[in-house]
Design a protein that fits this description.
6-stranded antiparallel β-sheet
Amino acid sequence: MAYHITKFVNDSKLESVTANPKSDRDTYFVKPGTLEQPKHPPLLNKGEFDSYSQAFPIANWIYTGTEAYAFWDSGKSEIFAVTQKDPRVVKVLYQGSAGDLTLTININGAIEFKSAK
């Protein structure tokens, strides 16, 4: 099973854009203060990365207006991320079974994942 983003919630006051380097149709612009339900829910790419520069050409990506994140499916029921500002610090953003997710951009531009159920 895989992770798919079925909802984007932008609680910030800034425009955001998300992309998948493996699929052009997984590029979405998310307006401030909106909830977007993509027609084609983006698939999170799988991988193992140690830095932003290593992840960037393969992993999913989002720019929140304050930060650029590369994020990916570890294949072990976890989503990892690394930021452009802190390019060597890999963090766990979500732990849970694969399935449909909501990606929320917080008011400060940080991102978080939750089950869309």
